[in-house]
Design goal:
The protein has 324 residues and is an alpha/beta fold. The chain contains eight helices and eight strands; from the N terminus they run αβαβαβααβαββαβαβ. The chain is rod-shaped, with a radius of gyration of 49 Å. The protein binds zinc ion. Zinc ion (ZN) is lined by residues 131-132, 178, 182, 219.
Length: 324
């Protein structure tokens, strides 16, 4: 083959072969690149579709957020309104409480003036009070009071003779509320405990006599040392419509066991002499038989001092230990 022996031809053939090889290589590279691009394009398309759903989700959440914000603002404005209403009522209440306090003080002043005026006319007023009953002595006390046509006040507790309040009431005496349990260690632990006990005796009395008594006496009086919230308690009982009564003459019938009837009588009569009007503390319990014994002489002795006997009413002077 002469053709292949010529160097020119051989060179020509080599160039041709090189060109063909180059062409084949280029085609291979381009094909590979094309497939890479396709792959990326597929990824872009798939990402685009995910971006689209993410956008849709964002729009949806923004709409939700908008409605939640609107609801939130509505609730906030309602909260603000309720707060304002509460502040207004609290303010009103504090004004009302102040009025009650002032009116109670004015009422006490008026009642005190009234007893002083009676005294000036020669009529001294005596409120006999019997605490802690009814008891087996109640009927004897009622009999003595009837005999002297004297009216009195019974501050009752929940005893097994509680039914006697019917007779006390029907004979024109005042049934006052003292306590259901009369347990200082329970009733003076909190306002709630005090008022729960008061409600218990109040309901009991209401069921028996048909009317709600608003006349009360704190166990131990308003000056007792067992209650450490008495200044606030006296305000609260007034706000609830109660009238509380202490005393200014102590018969001393609770100063020990079997206190002699002469001691009881003398305690009352000697203390009464120096006063214009009196509220006498006595007790109506099974153990206080000497109080019953002393009662006729107490009444006669006080009558001799110009005293008349009345039952306490809501308008009576309160004989308060701490305030007046
Ligand atoms: Zn008592």
């Amino acid at each position: 083959m002469k053709f292949f022996k010529s160097p020119v031809n051989l060179t020509f053939i080599a160039v041709i072969l090189l060109l063909v090889a180059g062409l084949i290589f280029s085609v291979a590279v381009i094909t590979e690149k094309n497939s890479d691009i396709k792959e990326l394009q597929t990824e872009v398309t798939s990402n685009n579709s995910e971006i689209q759903s993410a956008n849709e989700r964002i729009t949806e959440i923004e709409a939700q957020l908008g409605s939640i914000t609107e609801e939130n603002n509505k609730v906030k404005s309602e909260l603000e309104k309720a707060q304002q209403e509460k502040d207004k009522l609290t303010q009103e209440n504090s004004t009302l409480k102040k009025s009650i306090e002032q009116m109670s003080a004015a009422k006490q002043q008026k009642a005190q003036t009234a007893v002083a005026q009676s005294a000036a006319k020669g009529e001294r007023i005596c409120y006999l009070t019997f605490d802690d009953g009814p008891s087996e002595n109640t009927l004897k006390i009622l009999e003595i009071l009837k005999k002297y046509n004297a009216k009195a006040t019974f501050f009752v507790i929940d005893t097994n003779k509680i039914d006697y309040v019917k007779q006390i009431y029907s004979e024109g005496h005042t049934v006052g509320l003292h306590s259901a349990s009369h347990r200082y260690d329970e009733i003076y632990t909190s306002f709630d405990a005090y008022f729960a006990d008061l409600a218990a005796i109040s309901d009991k009395v209401k069921n028996l006599i048909g009317v709600k008594s608003k006349i009360i006496r704190f166990p131990g009086g308003s000056s007792n040392s067992k209650c450490n919230f008495m200044p606030e308690l006296v305000k609260q009982v007034a706000e609830k419509g109660y009238f509380y009564f202490d005393w200014n003459v102590d018969s001393c019938d609770a100063s020990g066991n079997n206190v002699s009837y002469t001691k009881i009588k003398n305690s009352v009569l000697s203390s009464a002499v120096t006063k214009n009007s009196i509220c006498v503390l006595m007790h109506d319990t099974d153990a206080k038989s000497t109080t019953v014994t002393a009662l006729p002489e107490i009444i006669e002795g006080l009558q001799a001092q110009g005293y008349v006997f009345k039952a306490l009413t809501a308008d009576s002077y309160g004989y308060h230990h701490n305030i007046d």
